[in-house]
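Researcher: Next sequence.
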Amino acid sequence: AISRYLRLPFILAYLCTGLLVGPSGLAWIPDMAGTRTLAEFGLVFLMFTIGLEFSLPQLFAMKRTVLGLGGTQVVLSCLAFGGIAWLLGMTVAGAMVVGGVLALSSTAVVMKLLADQLEQHSRHGRAAFGVLLFQDLVVVPFLIFIPMLAGDGLMQSLPAALGWALVKSAAVLVVIFLVGRVWLRPLFHEVAMARSREFFGMTVLFITLASAWLTDAAGLSMALGGFLAGLMIGETEYRH
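Model: Next structure:
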């Protein structure tokens, strides 16, 4: 209510409330694994609904934005934030970690803001989504790279670790796309023949969580799996 009165985004009110009642505030809600899991599910379902608004042709048409604009944003942000941290006295390894962390944004928060303002399909909305998608993908090499900064033999172990992560991530994405293109339409046709809203809803829920589990197992974000599930179902005639 306060956020609406001040004409601020609702997502800001949610974040402030979480800080207030969480373990760093009044501690009404302790830091439990279950709470974090529920929060992850919320992001998965949010990205699922966003994925329904996109199509594969649209996504492929955005490859220049994802790789070009997204890659440029991550590199420049890493250099800028890492450079500032290094100038403030941090070690090179520490500065690289800070730069990598601050170069990433929250896909869920940004897309929620764009959706609330009906700007997700605008030119700047699509550009922002392309950057966010690249950030979701670059999380994998970041998570591999950061622990290695603390050890020796970085240059010897990094290429092999990154190569394996790339292969694993690509395999999971290919499996999700193949399943979506080949099996989802006949599957939903059979489900729809049952004429049961509950059965249909449970099928969508299962596919979304299964996709999120696969991307999480590959080291990618669960939210990315939810987005891909929405994207695949959006390609069928059951999108509505």
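Model: The chain has twelve helices and no strands. Residues 44 and 201 are 15 Å apart (CA to CA).
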